[in-house]
Specification:
Blueprint: H1 4-10, E1 26-37, E2 40-52, E3 55-64, H2 66-71, E4 74-87, E5 90-103, E6 106-115, E7 118-125, H3 128-132, H4 148-162, E8 167-172, E9 177-189, E10 201-213, E11 224-231, E12 240-246, E13 253-261, H5 267-281
Antiparallel strand pairs: 1-2, 1-13, 2-3, 3-4, 4-5, 5-6, 6-7, 8-9, 9-10, 10-11, 11-12, 12-13
């Protein structure tokens, strides 16, 4: 079974086929994906995202499907929001991140808050150190990190403003710390078919992510590599991947964008309200 980590990171990088940077005013959309290994469907995902000149919000939902879904049930839902800053090496500043999942009938919940450049675990049930025997990540290593979803939207913003996906930054998901490197390979032609309705000219971004902290004491996870193919599918949405090709233990993972629809301008308020309501309930 392909790891949830690989599916998640595969949906977390982006680039643009636009050579000129454009001023972003307000963009939103729901991006629906299907994933395949060896021609067999293994899962689906949707990414809801909205961004204006001062703030952003994003929500990711994933689940197993196809033949894999007959044998293994995996559900994942995560969300994040923060501020647009357009300063320094990364254009976004996350405020909070939440991750909920069900894997092999085990439920997980994790919440992170970001303050003064530091990522702090607000809630972890079960705690990764106790449940998975992961090595703790020191506070100094969590400085100036971003969550996985902010990574997605941040690079998208970077493409809008600078016209390139080339970047290196650290991602903290509450359990692990990754270094992610992206190389811009320029515009390429991607095929269009019934699996890939948004094929066409897209920017190829080769990525390599390596875990740097939060290892399981009995297992060291290997680096992953792949390529992302991104284009601006309409004038109202942010730049997102139309295709992802990545390594897995079972062959190449291929993810195709299947549908795009509007989610409306109130999405940012919806996500921030969810975090506020959760904090009041604790």
């Amino acid at each position: 079974m392909i790891s949830g980590k690989l599916l998640l990171v595969a949906l977390l990088i982006m680039a643009s086929p636009v050579a000129e940077a454009a001023k972003l005013i307000s963009k939103e959309g729901r991006f629906s994906y299907s994933g395949y290994i060896g021609g067999l469907k293994i899962g689906t995902a949707s990414v809801d995202v909205a961004m204006d000149d001062s703030k952003y919000a994003v929500e990711l939902k994933m689940k197993t499907g196809g033949v894999i879904g007959w044998f293994v049930e995996w559900l994942h839902r995560s969300s994040a929001f923060g501020l647009v800053q357009d300063q320094g090496n990364f254009p976004l500043s996350p405020n909070a991140y939440r991750n909920q999942s069900v894997w092999e009938e085990k439920e997980r919940l994790l919440e992170i808050i970001f303050s003064s450049g530091n990522a702090k675990i607000l809630l972890a049930n079960p705690h990764p150190i106790d449940d998975e025997r992961r090595e703790p990540i020191p506070e100094e290593k969590r400085q100036n990190t971003v969550d996985p979803l902010t990574a997605l939207i941040g690079v998208s913003r970077m493409i809008e403003e600078k016209g390139t996906c080339k970047s290196t930054f650290d991602i903290f998901d509450g359990r692990r710390l990754f270094q992610l490197r992206i190389e811009d390979k320029g515009i390429v032609k991607t095929s269009k078919n019934r699996y890939a309705p948004f094929g066409g000219d897209a920017r190829r971004c080769d990525f390599a992510f390596k875990q740097t902290a939060g290892f399981k004491r009995l297992k060291e996870e290997k680096p992953n590599k792949g390529s992302f193919y991104f284009r601006h599918v309409n004038d109202h949405s942010v730049i997102m991947p139309i295709k992802v090709k990545a390594e897995s233990n079972y062959g190449d993972l291929i993810i195709h964008l299947r549908n795009v629809e509007s989610i409306g301008p109130e999405f940012i308020k919806k996500i921030t309200r969810q975090f506020s309501d959760a904090e009041k309930a604790q």
